[in-house]
Amino acid sequence: MSVQEKLIRAGHLIDMDDIIREGNPTLRAKAKEVTLPLSDEDIRLGEKMMQFLKHSQDPVMAEKMKLRAGVGLAAPQIDISKRIIAVLVPNPEDPEGNPPKEAYSLEEVMYNPKILSHSVQDAALAEGEGCLSVDRTVEGYVVRHSRITIEYYDKNNEKHKLKLKGYNAIVVQHEIDHINGVLFYDRINSKNPFERKEGLLLLD
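The structure corresponding to this sequence follows.
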């Protein structure tokens, strides 16, 4: 049984044991494009990846399944070298603590995503980045583009073009890096991790 066959079985819920960690060669390989129209197996894999993210953000399920919260997951992280990513970015509560009108600012499984264009301005998260495949803290600014335009296919084989900025742009770039064999700390200046070049936008 292949890794993908195991992960898409009806009763299987992706958990931390399915996520490979740094040092595994799959994380450093350039993933292959998925063929279109999508196979049922690739559609099911995308659904399982999104299900993992929803479980990881649900306090009850996360505790029960011992999951680290995530806003994105790429197929190479579950040892499948395919260009598939899932992103699930929740909207914050309002200042009074009421739930947002829309639960998520970004909720999508993307097949063969690619960056078509990007801003000149760079951005980084003030608190740095983490990764489900990296079990240690790596401090420093992960320098990325502040705005991007991407293209991808959804599970219905429809092509989309999407403009993203701020946190959503950072999340998608982190996941696209995964399908290109890049880890977030590759983008930290090793000599000066908190170097702030002119024009760098720091996001809270």
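The chain has a mean pLDDT of 97.
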